[in-house]
Design goal:
Elements: H1 5-58, H2 64-75, E1 78-82, E2 88-91, H3 106-112, E3 117-122, E4 129-138, E5 144-153, H4 155-205, H5 219-255, E6 259-263, E7 269-272, H6 274-280, H7 284-287, H8 292-297, H9 299-311, E8 315-321, E9 327-335, E10 341-347, H10 349-384, H11 391-422, E11 430-434, H12 435-452, E12 456-461, E13 466-470, H13 471-488, E14 494-501, E15 505-511, H14 543-553, E16 557-562, E17 568-575
Parallel strand pairs: 12-14
Antiparallel strand pairs: 1-2, 1-5, 3-4, 4-5, 6-7, 6-10, 8-9, 9-10, 11-13, 14-15, 15-17, 16-17
């Protein structure tokens, strides 16, 4: 209990009260006893002096024993007359002859010297505490002829003072009890507000910033409660501001496409946003506080951090990180004054991929143009050298030249269409039509090719499926897919066209019986100019890219499934109700 403020206050008050009451009681009893004893002594002196006068008048009568008894009865004190040689010549209580010589009694000795003697002690004859006063009785010549002594029994006085001490002690205990109750109440009134403030402070430390202390108790407690409440309000306001700032920061970091990583002075990850975690192949919650991750998994990035700290300057470099595919990352490292390091990561993989695609595109276009142009040049040169005069040869050259020109024209038109699709400027005209009608139109175009190869087309699934899309664009999609399936399937093969309706989309697929596609080539089959192996060669390499962009223009998606030796399935999904748009 003494560890609490209430216990300390109560103990202090009780200690001070006990000391005060004890000292005051002892002092009062002592002072009263001294005062009363002084009064009794003075009174006894006066009585002794009066007795000395009385004895002076009657000493000649000679009956000192009777005179002593008379004085004792008159004063209520023990009267003793002592000769100069110390013999007791008169006694009011005992027979004088039986008493010892009193010459050396302190008060008697002092009276024999001519002064008033006073002494208190226990009587050797009565065995009780007595107060003695003795005065000398002088002759006409000034010689002490007799000592008159009165003695007062102090037993009753001591008993009275004992009672007074008991009363004083009782009163002190009562006062201490009352003081204890008052002290307890005062300590309670002082400690309860403080205890409540301790509780409020504990709640504040645990995050309950709405907790407030009641303004009760003494003035100082109310002032402390006011200060605590003000501090809590300031903390709550500051916490709300920090929380809003943190939410804004989290919103900004979460919405950023660039990665942000904050490294502390010990090279441990202190903060990382989702974009950075995705780029580095990390889990946001699992990497905070980790040091060895940067050191072990990304030595290039750790090297940049060390270099930036050494040079105390910002550094930006391109690094490559593994994970799902190789990524090109532009890392900017900025050392901060606090010892932390801020890292921003920009995924430039798509930029490099676009550069690669552009380079491949230029190379593919150059290759696709070079072959027919070279052929046209050779045939033109042969015609100019005389082949023009040979009609059969000239006609053959002209037919071949026409075919090359038709091929070039088709490639240019497909490139233009693909460009419009990619730039979202190709117009779409939506309408409702049946899947069977669309397939019939496509088969009419390809019937001659199918007949030449003795191939058949089987329709499976929901033949009466209704489609809402751009019919001419979807016709081009199916035409490209069936044309590819016919080219890559053996003679007398059956090509399957499947139709399925799901909950909120439709699926259309074309399954061939060709040699299949190697797994490593499957992700690239919808790229421009990609032809894969020679077994799937032929054409411009733009058909599937056009298919992909037309389907995506309808808010759909494409897929391909294949195993080597088991053919391939090219399909796409379209929403049941495509969005109405005038252009891509």
């Amino acid at each position: 209990m003494l560890r609490t403020l209430k216990g300390q206050l109560l103990a202090t008050i009780l200690l001070l009260l006990s000391l005060s009451l004890g000292i005051m009681g002892l002092w009062l009893v002592s002072e009263f006893r001294s005062f009363y004893f002084e009064q009794v002594t003075q009174s006894l002196k006066h009585q002794t002096l009066l007795t000395e006068v009385l004895v002076r008048d009657k000493i000649t009568q000679g009956d000192l024993e009777g005179l002593a008894r008379s004085v004792g009865l008159a004063t209520g004190a023990r009267a003793t007359f002592i000769a100069p040689d110390g013999r007791v010549v008169g006694e009011s209580v005992r027979d004088a002859a039986t008493l010892d010589n009193h010459r050396h009694r302190p008060e008697v000795a002092e009276a024999l010297e001519g002064r008033v003697g006073v002494n208190s002690r226990s009587s050797s004859t009565l065995g009780v505490p007595m107060l003695y006063t003795a005065v000398p009785l002088r002759s006409s010549t000034g010689e002490v002829v007799l000592v008159v002594r009165l003695a007062l029994d102090l037993s009753q006085i001591n008993l009275a003072f004992a009672r007074i001490r008991v009363f004083t002690l009782t009163g002190g205990l009562v006062a201490l009890l009352v003081g204890s109750v008052l002290a307890l109440g005062n300590a309670q009134a002082t400690s309860e507000p403080l205890q409540e403030m301790v509780t409020v402070a504990n709640r504040l430390s645990k995050g309950d910033l709405r907790s407030r202390a009641a303004k009760v108790g003494p003035l100082e407690a109310r002032q402390l409660a006011t200060a605590l409440n003000t501090m809590a309000e300031n903390l709550e306001g500051e916490f709300q501001r920090v929380q809003k700032a943190s939410e804004k920061l989290q919103a900004v970091l979460s919405s950023m496409r660039d990665g942000v990583v904050l490294i502390d002075s010990q090279a441990s990850i202190e903060l990382v946003n989702r974009a950075a975690a995705d780029m580095l192949g990390l889990h946001v919650d699992a990497v905070v506080g980790k040091h060895e991750l940067l050191l072990e998994r990304y030595p290039d990035l750790f090297r940049l951090i060390t270099r930036a700290r050494t040079e105390s300057n910002a550094i930006a470099e391109r690094i490559s990180v593994g994970g799902i595919g190789n990524r090109h990352i532009r890392a900017a490292v900025l050392p901060l004054a606090s010892g932390r390091v801020l890292i921003t990561l920009q995924d430039i993989t798509e930029v490099y991929r676009a550069i690669d695609i552009r380079r491949d595109f230029v190379a593919n276009v150059s290759h696709e143009l070079r072959t027919p142009l070279t052929s046209l040049g050779l045939m033109t040169e042969n015609l100019l050298r005389g082949a023009l005069n040979d009609k059969p040869v000239a006609e053959d050259f002209l037919r071949r030249m026409s075919g090359e020109i038709e091929r070039l024209t088709k490639m240019v038109l497909e490139l233009l269409q693909l460009s419009r699709l990619e730039s979202r400027t190709e117009s779409l005209s939506f309408s409702s039509f049946t899947a069977v009608g669309l397939i019939s139109d496509v088969l009419e175009v390809l019937q001659e090719l199918l007949d030449q190869r003795a191939q058949a087309v089987a329709i499976e699934g929901e033949a009466g499926l209704s489609i809402y899309a751009d019919r001419s664009k979807l016709r081009q999609v199916l035409l490209n897919l069936l044309d590819n399936a016919s080219k890559f399937s053996p003679e007398r093969a059956v090509i399957v066209v499947g139709l399925r309706q799901h909950r909120d989309e439709i699926e259309i697929y074309v399954q061939d019986n060709g040699p299949g596609i190697p797994p490593e080539q499957i992700p690239r089959v919808y790229e421009r100019f990609f032809k894969g192996s020679s077994s799937r060669g032929g054409g411009t390499g733009l058909g599937l890219a056009i298919v992909k962009h037309i389907v995506e223009a309808h808010s759909g998606s494409v897929y391909v499934r294949s195993r080597l030796g088991e053919g391939a399935t090219f399909g796409f999904f379209l929403p049941l109700k495509a969005s109405r748009t005038d252009s891509l």
